[in-house]
Amino acid sequence: MTGKNILQIYKENPITTLADDDIVIVQDVSQNKTGGTLWFRFKALLADIFAGKKILDETITVGPGKDFATIQEAIDSLEGYVIANCTISIDVDVGSYDEAVTFDCFVCTGNGTVKLEGDTRENAGQTFTCTGNIVDNGDGTATITLASSPTSGWEDSSDRIIIKNCTTAGNEGEYTINSRGGAAITYTTGSVTDETVLSYTTVTLKPSHEITRTSEGQCILIDGTGGVEIDGWHLDTFTGANCNGVEVSGGGRVSCSGVSVESQDFGFSSKYSGNHIVCDAKCSAAGGLYGFFATSGGTIETIGIATGCNSGVVVLYGGAIVAQNSKVYGCIGSGFLSKFPGSSIDARWTTAIGCSYGFDARTSGSIDANYATAQICAIAYRAYYKSYIWATNTNANNHGNSTNYSPTTSNIEGNVDAIITWS
Questions:
Q1: Greatest CA separation found in the chain?
Q2: Which of 118, 288, 305, 318 is in Cβ range 3.0-4.6 Å of 233 for a Cys bridge?
Q3: How many other C-beta atoms lie within 10 A of the C-beta of residue 397?
Q4: Pair 257, 170 in one domain
Q5: Residues 32 and 173 in one domain
Q6: How far apart are CA 332 and CA 355, in angstroms?
Q7: Contact at 8 Å (CB) between 1 and 44?
């Protein structure tokens, strides 16, 4: 504030005497002895009060002929601003962008939000399991049937699907949609082998907006700022170092909705204390080393899906993930892995299907897997070396596992001082 600021109090509305640089801030009814209305007049230049602040909702556009040509330029236009109780939407044209996007140049306060807007359709980024068969139609197309029908869209060549976890590896991949009838999607393919789908075969409805990297590094980094939202994006990394989909650092915080990731390393990565990611049920991580990864004090809340990763939901070195109701399909390693002291996963009501280890606690890690489901795993629940798994109300949910529990007896130590409590 400057020396130009003067607070004046009136019993009547001073609107007729206001100058251009005056602001009436408050009208307070009934809090004075006369029972009337007090009017507060604050004489100040707008620039004195709101310098460096965004206080009204605003939309910034990205694309040919728009406000900015790139996503990063749009973000950088907010450098130094405080986003105070308003939403700044970055509205991006449909298409593919080869950018390493970083949010690090502004501060959000109150309910302040910076939102990276992509595909806003209801099912964008969502992953579905399948039923029935993959059928070669003999005309360059094939049909796959989802376990439930999308609400709208994904009906023609403007959209694509990503298929994972097939018996025939050649049936997996990304395909252009030809048509859709309810839950049955017909897609264009050079060749396909007829097969019965697995209980963990998945189809992801690819968003119309994507960041596809052609060099190493993450797709999106949130570094030292909060209030970031990402909605309706597909992220595809390249090869090399730090090839992660969404990464937070330096106290970063982000909320994701309808974000699908295909990564070399980590789909969603939260490293070190103070960093936090929230993912809704329409988020998914496919391929790569870990789907959802928290380490060294980093935290994640997710009800999303990991499919076809090395391991799905992974916590190391004191990280924590709340993964209630999330699902992991077709991981060659562990569905849910907690390792080293202080590491924990809240995996209640979750599902692990087609993994080597469904729920895997090692080296003093812990997992709360009460009410969970493990099917078609080599070992459904494994605790090793001073680790602990809570697995009450799980035995009836086991199906097709080679081994259900290791140690095999509830509340009896085994595998070097490890315990599983199960029923």
A1: 87
A2: 118
A3: 14
A4: no
A5: no
A6: 6
A7: yes
Q: Which amino acid is it at 317?
A: Y
372 is a domain residue: yes
- How far apart (Å, rounded) are the C-alpha atoms in residues 187 and 205? 12
Q: Which two tokens stand for residue 234?
A: 């597909």
- Looking up tokens 């990063």, which residue turns up? 72
Pair 109, 253: CB distance under 8 Å:
no
Q: Identify whether residues 23 and 69 lie together within a single domain.
A: no
Q: Which of 142, 146, 167, 192 is nearest to 330 (CA)?
A: 167
CATH code of the domain covering residue 237 = 2.160.20
141, containing H or E segment? strand 141-146
**Are 133 and 145 part of one and the same domain?**
yes
DSSP for 165-223?
--SSGGG-EEEEEEEEETTEEEEE-S----EEPPTT-EEEEE-SEEEE-SSSS-SEEEE
Tally of domains within the chain: 3
Which residues form the domain of 150?
A: 127-206
Q: Does some domain include residue 335? A: yes
Q: For residues 324 and 299, state if they share a domain.
A: yes
pLDDT in tens, the chain (423 residues): 333 444 444 445 544 554 444 444 444 444 444 445 444 444 444 444 455 788 789 999 999 999 999 999 999 999 999 998 999 999 999 999 999 999 999 999 989 999 999 999 999 999 999 999 999 999 999 999 999 999 988 999 999 999 999 999 999 999 999 999 999 999 999 889 999 999 999 999 999 999 999 999 999 999 999 999 999 999 999 999 999 999 999 999 999 999 999 999 999 999 999 999 999 999 999 999 999 999 999 999 999 999 999 999 999 999 999 999 999 999 999 999 999 999 999 999 999 999 999 999 999 999 999 999 999 999 999 999 999 999 999 999 999 999 999 999 999 999 999 999 999
Question: Do 116 and 142 belong to one domain?
Answer: no
Q: Are residues 278 and 190 in the same domain?
A: no
Single residue among 184, 206, 228 that ends a domain in this structure: 206
Q: What CATH number does the domain containing 198 carry?
A: 2.40.30
For residue 307, tell me if it sits in a domain. Answer: yes
Instruction: Select from 169, 115, 163 the least CA-distant residue to 262.
Output: 163
Residue 1, in any domain of the structure: no
The residue among 270, 269, 267 whose CA lies nearest residue 164 is 267
Q: Which two tokens stand for residue 103?
A: 């949010």
End position of a domain, from candidates 166, 182, 206? 206
How far apart CA 142 and CA 191 sit, in angstroms, is 8
